[in-house]
Amino acid sequence: MFTVTKDIMLPCTTTGSFPRPRWFDVSMWGRPLDTCMMDVRFREKFQDALAVVVSDQERAGLDIITHGDFHCDEDFAGRSWHHYPLQRWKGLEGDYLQSEETRSPWLRYPPGTLLHEIYTGWRWPIVVDKVEHRPLDYPKIWRITQAKTRKPVRFGTCCSQVMSLFLDIHTDKYKDKRELIWDLAVAMNKELRALRDAGCKCIQVEEPCFHFMANSLGKDHPDVRFMLEAYNREVEGLDDVEIWIHTCWGNPNMQRVMEDTSYAASLEMYLYEAKGDVWTVEMKDRNFKDIELFGSLSKGLPKKIAVGVVSHRTLQADRPEEVAAEIRRALKYIPPEKLVITSDCGFGRQGCNREIAFYKAAAIAQGTNIVRRELGLPTTYVPAADPALQIDIVPKKSATTS
């Protein structure tokens, strides 16, 4: 159900995570949000940081706002994106290096590389009992954020399928990984339903990972088909919410974890079988590889496609006209009523700095407005581009100035 993009042509946003202000130097480290909020310093910094990330996105001119993933701890290479739910659900405990026997072949890199340091530096809980839901406080985080803006706030979360890649089972409650993945999906579904019940109308489920698996194993592999089933279980009963399915090719500390990337094997699964309304695809950093596939679909496009037009991996702040060129590139294959404009992935969690992220976001909005004008569509006000609102304005010469 298109609850937030229904009446917006070429809606623009970013994927989700945003760099923290330097003064936002507190984390939850596994504690419940309510416990953290009793600390007056945390309470003030957390609420103020959410106000700042909302303000930055509104000033950049984005149509749909995110909470910046500011509930995630400021830890090494963005581990908390996966770790936040795992720290809180029943049946998981401790922090351990994943065993070599269970580590995915995608996550093996030679010594002397950043990805090797990341995947041997990250520590994970082990599964010691049946995994069951405990509250993640997503409804409260959404309410705090939504209270600071009249624009819709999309709430994003790491999905259970990708979290399962890092878990070792140390209990006889599970005979195989599939049973664990299913319980993780059920647990996340409970949280997403609570988020919906709180009033959130747009939920982003991030990285179901069957595009990774289909690219390596083939679209008909039993493990790929099971991951699709588990994802659909995770979003079950959310038909009255606009569901975004975010996919990219890795983002620990801005790193791509796979070089041979293609959506070709997973295209039909995401479009026709995965429950949801918007599919986000990484394009800018991949030079728009696979974009032509969207123009050759005999069944048409049942979902909107959110195309990444700026990369989270580069430090160059894109110019609006460059973004407009990438949007035109996407429009060759995706009709405007089906196109959403976004970033390839998130900017935060030990990613690019706040100023660069802001101007990339502002370029998304300005570039979208360029194309909207060309198509005769309404534009969105971008305060960051308003000449009267610049920090430093060169005064005009008066008539009496010599």
TrEMBL record:
Which InterPro entries would you find in this protein's record?
Met_Synth_C/arc (IPR002629), UROD/MetE-like_sf (IPR038071)
Cofactor section: Zn(2+)
Q: What is its EC number?
A: 2.1.1.14
An annotated GO BP: methionine biosynthetic process
Coiled coil regions in record:
none
Give every Cobalamin-independent methionine synthase MetE C-terminal/archaeal domain span: 175-352
Q: Which top-rank group of organisms is this from?
A: Bacteria
Give the Gene3D superfamilies listed for this entry. Answer: 3.20.20.210
Q: What class of enzyme is it?
A: transferase
This chain belongs to the protein called: 5-methyltetrahydropteroyltriglutamate--homocysteine methyltransferase
Organism lineage string: Bacteria, Pseudomonadati, Planctomycetota, Planctomycetia, Pirellulales
